[in-house]
Amino acid sequence: MQVGEMGTMKAGSLVLSLQPSFVWGSSGSSVTTFLLQVHGFDVSTINSVQFSNHTGYGKFKGQVLDDQDVTDLYEGLKLNNLVQFSHILTGYIGSKSFLEKVKEIIQELRSHNPSLIYVCDPVMGDNGKMYVPENLLEVYRESIVPLADIVTPNQFELELLTRSKVTNETEALAAMEMLHNKGVKTVVLSSSSLGRDGVLICLASSNRDGVKECYRIEIPLLPAIFVGTGDLFAASLMVWMQKDNSLKVAFEKTISTVQAVIRRTLDYARKVAGEHVKPTPAQMELRLVQSKDDLENPKILYTAELFS
Questions:
Q1: Measured between alpha carbons, how far is 258 from 157 in angstroms, rounded to an integer?
Q2: In whole angstroms, what separates CA 75 from the centre of its chain?
Q3: Which of 5, 31, 58, 262 is the most buried (most CB within 10 A)?
Q4: Tens digit of pLDDT for each residue in 253-266?
Q5: Which one of the listed residues 69, 149, 231, 294 is annotated catalytic?
């Protein structure tokens, strides 16, 4: 981390990342921090929850942090003038009061740095089921999303945010446009079941300075459940948007990164679990460190096509 004469950090790629923290496994802050640091970003992390392991194990222990917890940490940073952030990245948040405080933090930081980039992964649920308290939804809709530069919902989250049904790509684009109308410059649908059997559809749309562009990528549906891919997706997209300043390139690199990691994860899990045996959640933890080369220099496996 670069430091000036009075201990003040110089301007650069410095990320405030508000993420879930897990003692065991590769999801939440362990994913985002590693990926961002590999790419040369300095990262300051505030936990939104701290659990023994992710909830997909069925059993876990830990704490959901609230507004007072995040306020204490943020005020400590302010006392030492350690708030010169260039980016904010948020993932899973389990408390309404915590999320409301995040809004205040973003607004305060942006008042000092109008060029601050906020990337929001609005983690609320998937496949028609919410896994955060329902009272967070209105905060995301009315307070958080309008502050974001980049939003990365899945299909279900896009429906929740826009109060609309998304059953085809035309409806998906219409819903993404609703988020643009709230002020979001870039909306990326990280996954959807809109494709034919065995295929997932991802869409990326931007509306910057009156210039609109939209891209589409098809990816294969792998027969497994992965945890932490949303964290990986949002952090990767933030990196490549910053480095390449091209939605098409960032979209392709992000999709290719995630696909490389989950394929390596599934291959490993099948190997250790044995033939015809369902891997355990521990065996399905993302093989993140083993994928370092793919994080840094992803081989483009999928090409984005213009779409409208």
A1: 19
A2: 25
A3: 31
A4: 999 999 999 999 99
A5: 231
